[in-house]
Amino acid sequence: MSIMDGHDSPISINKGSTTLAKALVSEDGGHWPVPEGTILASGVRRVVSFVLDTVIVSSILLLITGGDLINAWNLTLWASSDFHYSLAMLLILLVSHWLYWKYTGLYYSRSFGQKLMGLAVLAEDGSEMTSKMWEIRALKKLGYLIFPFSIYFGSYDLARISQRHTHQSNIDLRVGSIVAHANSLPPANRKHIK
């Protein structure tokens, strides 16, 4: 009779089709299966893609408004009786970014800044995001544009991205999305990415 009779073996062989990474994520409280081979986006790549998006949209708006978009940040104008000019430019800025993030997401599954950085946004299960998910995601990202809230929201979410094993921001958790390197996704999960 051996010492181990009647006891479970301390060593078990993984007979399932899951990878070690998937097993670790699910054991660590993860609530979504990581698509095979997926590399999640770092905070740095996400910040750079956000900056690129902001530069793209703001540059177009500066050209269209003949430079008047600058009044959205003109504190002197905000404090005057003509503050409505600043308010109008701020609304144009926010609505334009919301439309940009929503529709580039719907048509390309990522913004142009994310495309330049090789990223894609998808639902937590690796499927394509819905229109409602893109609307909420675009709306929540507007908080990054309003100073001084942008510093707080941006730094807080960047810290959350680097601390979470899923690399999800608070917006990602709210929407149910992940941001990953587009080329690391399996072909079935990137067929909708343009």
Short structural description:
The chain has 194 residues and is mostly helical.
Care to describe what's here?
With 194 residues, the chain is mainly alpha-helical. It has one domain (37-186). The chain is built from nine helices and two strands. The protein has helices at residues 20-27, 43-64, 75-78, 83-108, 112-116, 131-141, 149-163, 170-175, 187-190, and strands at 119-123, 177-181. Strands 1-2 form a two-stranded antiparallel sheet. Helix 2 (43-64) packs across helix 4 (83-108) and helix 4 (83-108) packs antiparallel against helix 6. The chain is elongated, with a radius of gyration of 22 Å. The N and C termini lie far apart (63 Å).
Helices and strands in order:
Layout: H1 20-27, H2 43-64, H3 75-78, H4 83-108, H5 112-116, E1 119-123, H6 131-141, H7 149-163, H8 170-175, E2 177-181, H9 187-190
Antiparallel strand pairs: 1-2
Helix pairs in contact: 2-4, 4-6
Uncertain residue ranges: 9-30
Q: What is the number of domains? A: 1
User: SSE order in H/E notation?
Assistant: HHHHHEHHHEH
Based on CA atoms alone, the radius of gyration comes out at: 22 Å
Strand order of the largest sheet: 1-2
Q: How many strands, what sense, and barrel or not for the largest sheet?
A: 2 strands, antiparallel
Query: How confident is the prediction overall: mean pLDDT?
Result: 80
Coarse structural class: mainly alpha
Spatial separation of the terminal alpha carbons:
63 Å
